Amino acid sequence: MVTGKDIGKSAITVGATLGKWGIQGAGMVFRGGVNVALASMNMSTDLAKTFSGDSIGAPIGSTMAKGSGKILKSGISAAENACVNAVNWAAQKGKNALS
Q1: Which residue range forms the structural domain that includes residue 37?
Q2: pLDDT in tens for each of the 99 residues of the chain?
Q3: Which distant-in-sequence residues (6+ apart) come within 8 Å of 95 by Cβ?
Q4: Centroid of chain to Cα 78
Q5: Is residue 29 left, alpha or beta, with left meaning phi > 0 and alpha meaning psi from -120 to 50?
Q6: Among 1, 13, 22, 27, which is disulfide-ready with 80 (CB 3.0 to 4.6 Å)?
């Protein structure tokens, strides 16, 4: 027989899963934003190189853009993982309270 505690545990599991999906979806959106920003930075570097004829700054700008992109993406992933871990911890606490 299904008890109220079983229903509560299942509701916590569903809520935690939806929360994790939301966090992961937000992470994908933020990483996509970083990719768009990097693409526009590279494009502006290319345009500046084309119009000025200066090719010295382009490799420096590309290297800086790649480095900052990696840092931002790793920061987003770390925040995403921390949030998912917090949701898992809260869900486990809720399930334990119903036991």
Answers
A1: 4-98
A2: 888 889 999 999 999 999 999 999 999 999 999 888 888 877 777 777 777 666 666 677 677 777 888 888 899 999 999 999 999 999 999 999 988
A3: 9, 12, 13
A4: 8
A5: alpha
A6: 27
CA-to-CA distance for 17 and 27, rounded, in angstroms? 15
Among residues 61, 38, 37, 40, the alpha carbon closest in space to that of 49 is found at: 61
Write down the H helix ranges in the chain: 4-52, 57-98
Rounded to whole angstroms, the Cα distance separating 81 from 94 reads 20
Beta-carbon contacts of residue 55 (< 8 Å; ≥ 6 apart): 49
Residue in 44, 89, 93 with CA at minimum distance from that of residue 64? 44
